[in-house]
């Protein structure tokens, strides 16, 4: 008998609310694990997580498990605590504003998207993103969901007759950073290519014309850019507003809100964009691929799970971004 604990990233599902996904995918996995510990005849637990379980570490991330009490940032505070607090604060704010269920659903979906690099692509296509603090040579570890599913199936097949104890936990990294890396400069180029040929249409029916934008190679440079481009002009506007007896009050409020919103968004994606030097070792996964090839089971796979076969330009331009535009962008 098998209990397969599936913990997909909330942000891989564009139709799912972040608060619901967090409760189901994270806390749900904990509940299933607690249940599995009580099953005396259990053979296997298959748990699927995301690249973000490694925290903000750099270098080569090896395929080894975390142990009880071990955290990502070297402290006793878990990142999940901050995520739950973020969701609770946002929901409380929406309740105080008497937001209806439809508004809550839209905002919770957006919150989930904001936690990933997809928010960069969306913001860029909508013309909202004028600059980004990121190293152009930063490598993003991306992988199509189809390959994750294929790997899960092959892991179950290969390990079906092997009893695993707590000391024989197998970790399989399913990623691209070692065998077929994609840099932010590539992602930027592909996004520019797509939205130039397929411009985003805003709520007024107008096509949004994008530029290549400004790429700032450090957080310090981004802060200087924000100070010169937004914060100093805003201070000047507030001063003029006070001199002219609050004549520009509404303009100040709107400008202040937009600037704060933009800064908050940049802060939320900064941990993702600042990861410039890490790769996920996939030695165990490569051994799995070799076993599958030797056994002849590779022909039974859906699409295979070797990242070397991915054409990133084709995947980003013809599959990933069109799906984002269809399911994630709202007016």
3D architecture notes:
It is an enzyme of class 1 (oxidoreductase). InterPro entries: FAR, FAR_NAD-bd, NAD(P)-bd_dom_sf. It comes from Acer yangbiense. It catalyses: a long-chain fatty acyl-CoA + 2 NADPH + 2 H(+) = a long-chain primary fatty alcohol + 2 NADP(+) + CoA. This protein has helices at 18-36, 79-96, 101-114, 118-125, 145-158, 184-197, 219-243, 249-273, 283-295, 312-327; strands at 2-6, 44-48, 59-61, 131-133, 139-140, 182-183, 214-216, 278-280. By secondary structure, the chain is mainly alpha-helical. α1 (18-36) links the parallel β1 (2-6) and β2 (44-48).
In short:
This protein has 331 residues and is mainly alpha-helical.
Throw out a few tags for this protein:
single chain, 331 residues, mainly alpha, two-stranded parallel ribbon, 8% strand, globular, disordered N terminus, FAR, NAD(P)-bd_dom_sf, NADP, lipid metabolism, FAR_NAD-bd
Task: Summarize the helices and strands and which ones pair or pack.
Elements: E1 2-6, H1 18-36, E2 44-48, E3 59-61, H2 79-96, H3 101-114, H4 118-125, E4 131-133, E5 139-140, H5 145-158, E6 182-183, H6 184-197, E7 214-216, H7 219-243, H8 249-273, E8 278-280, H9 283-295, H10 312-327
Parallel strand pairs: 1-2, 3-8, 4-7
Antiparallel strand pairs: 5-6
Helix pairs in contact: 5-9, 6-10, 7-8
Calculate the mean pLDDT score and round it.
76
Terminal CA distance reads 47 Å
Q: How would a crystallographer describe the biggest sheet? A: 2 strands, parallel
Question: Count of helices?
Answer: 10
What coarse outline follows from CA principal-axis ratios?
A: globular
Structural class: mainly alpha
- What oligomeric arrangement do these chains adopt? single chain
What is the beta-strand fraction?
5-15%
List the secondary-structure elements in sequence, H or E: EHEEHHHEEHEHEHHEHH
Low-confidence stretches: 1-15
Strand order of the largest sheet: 1-2
Per DSSP E runs of 2 or more residues, the count of β-strands stands at 8
Catalytic activity: a long-chain fatty acyl-CoA + 2 NADPH + 2 H(+) = a long-chain primary fatty alcohol + 2 NADP(+) + CoA
InterPro entries: FAR (IPR026055), FAR_NAD-bd (IPR013120), NAD(P)-bd_dom_sf (IPR036291)
Pfam families: NAD_binding_4
GO molecular function, one term: alcohol-forming long-chain fatty acyl-CoA reductase activity
């Amino acid at each position: 008998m098998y209990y397969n604990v599936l913990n997909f990233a909330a942000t891989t599902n564009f139709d799912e609310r972040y608060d619901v996904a967090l409760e189901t995918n994270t806390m749900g996995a904990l509940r299933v694990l607690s249940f599995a510990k009580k099953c005396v005849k259990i053979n296997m637990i298959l748990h699927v997580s995301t690249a973000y379980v490694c925290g903000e570490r750099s270098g080569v991330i090896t395929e080894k498990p975390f142990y009880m009490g071990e955290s990502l940032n070297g402290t006793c505070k878990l990142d999940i605590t901050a995520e739950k607090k973020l969701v609770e604060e946002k929901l409380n704010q929406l309740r105080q504003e008497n937001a209806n269920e439809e508004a809550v659903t839209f905002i919770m979906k957006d919150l989930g998207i904001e936690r990933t690099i997809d928010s960069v692509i969306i913001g860029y296509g909508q013309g909202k993103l004028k600059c980004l603090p990121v190293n152009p040579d930063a490598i993003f570890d991306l992988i199509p969901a189809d390959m994750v599913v294929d790997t899960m199936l092959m892991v179950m097949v290969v390990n079906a007759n092997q009893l695993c104890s707590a000391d024989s936990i197998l970790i399989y990294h399913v990623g691209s950073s070692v065998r077929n890396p994609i840099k932010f400069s590539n992602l930027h180029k592909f996004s520019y290519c797509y939205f130039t040929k397929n411009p985003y249409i805003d709520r007024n029916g107008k096509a949004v014309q994008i530029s290549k934008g400004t790429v700032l190679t450090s957080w310090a440079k981004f802060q200087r850019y924000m100070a010169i481009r937004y914060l100093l002009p805003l201070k000047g506007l507030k001063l003029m507003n006070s001199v002219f007896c609050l004549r520009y009050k509404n303009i100040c409020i709107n400008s202040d809100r937009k600037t704060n919103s933009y800064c908050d968004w940049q802060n939320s994606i900064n941990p993702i964009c600042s990861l410039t030097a890490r790769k996920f070792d996939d030695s165990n996964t490569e051994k799995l691929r070799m076993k599958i090839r030797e056994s002849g089971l590779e022909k039974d796979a859906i699409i295979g799970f070797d990242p070397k076969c991915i054409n990133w330009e084709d995947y980003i331009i013809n599959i990933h971004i069109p799906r984002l535009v269809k399911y994630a962008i709202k007016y």
